[in-house]
Model the fold of this input.
Amino acid sequence: MEHKFRCNCPITVALDVIGDKWALVIVKQMLTEGKKTFKDFIESEEAIATNILSSRLKMLEEFKIITKDKLPDNKKTNIYTLTEKGVDLMPIIAELSLWSDKHIREFYPELYSGETLQIIKNNKEGFINKKIEDYKLENWK
Done:
């Protein structure tokens, strides 16, 4: 499928692929919450609509950010796995967490401030590397 981009700016093109409301949420759920199936995503607290989820999963697959396979013991269920491109988004997800904590908390005091955020603040690179390593160990067998 041919893709249309707004311009040739690297930031704008990246946002054309992962900058909508849901693409990074899906990647974040895969990396940090272990989501793998359509049902996993639908049951998450973010409450993504089924039609939007289908569309975003297809788009992420087209750009080779995720792959889709069948579960070995259930050929009806698709399982989604991040590719290297998808895993490479982990630093962006960590940075967005820090940015949100620093700049959005004043507008939304209920913003998550638990252990994971503290780990990112104290050792961002360590957190990123551990999440990537854990994901690869769990999913790239």
User: Anything to note?
Assistant: Residues 124-139 form the longest helix (16 residues). The chain has a mean pLDDT of 92.
